[in-house]
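#structure-requests
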Amino acid sequence: MTRDCRTRQGDERHAADVSGPSAPPNEAEALAAVSRLLEASDIESVWAALRAVLARYGFDRLNYTHAPALRDPVHLSRSLRFTLTSHSDPRMERIYRSEVLDRSPMRRWAAENVGAISWSRQPELLREYGMEADGPELNALLADLGFHAGYTIGFPFSALTGKAAMGLTARPDLDQPAVDAIWGRHGPAIEALAGAAHARMSQLPLELPNGRLSPRQREILSWIADGKSVQDVAILMDRSLAAIEKQLREARKRLGVETTAQAVARVALLNQLSVPGRAG
């Protein structure tokens, strides 16, 4: 069974196996798949639907990384990235938490550009970015992990949701020229499907590295985001000031921030705010 990992959390998800080779979707099937992606109610459903449809184009392993555009210094930590991978190699989680893939020219290209790029251009990018010295080690690692042929997609930057990228790895029986031929025929449809998945996942709540906030903690932060003071929140929620401050301390710790203002910003960017006055 292919394993899905949310490496940002160290959490592992299991989904149905992606079936073997089959015909690419026709236009009606691709449009139906876009609708399913946009209507999915949780990130796991989006991911499963995307994997299933892209497998029909020959891409049986996917990686998705989303870095929220946080304005405080702690956003630089790799542990705050939200990552999904369907690669089964158990080393993937450790690699995503390290700086190894930060040296990938495809990762850099996706961070700076919007659109799709063939992995055939990696030698060119190594030269362009002055990374040729890293080439042999990086190429050996990628080959060992099974990144033999594929495409990388960079999504548009958003001040609210940040920057995201997706790597599409082809089946082992497909080499890069074959993948480029597939992209020549179906590239726009594949990009539309990946874009729909990214758009939907950007709207859904992202889980936190240290677990979920409680409904009460989210309600408190939502009241503060609405302009209320801590004293106001205590009155509105009929709790003592000490109880509210304790909840805020626990929320800041779970969010990995130092101030309540940072906590509000973090929760807003991760789509975790609730409607003030209604926990849950």
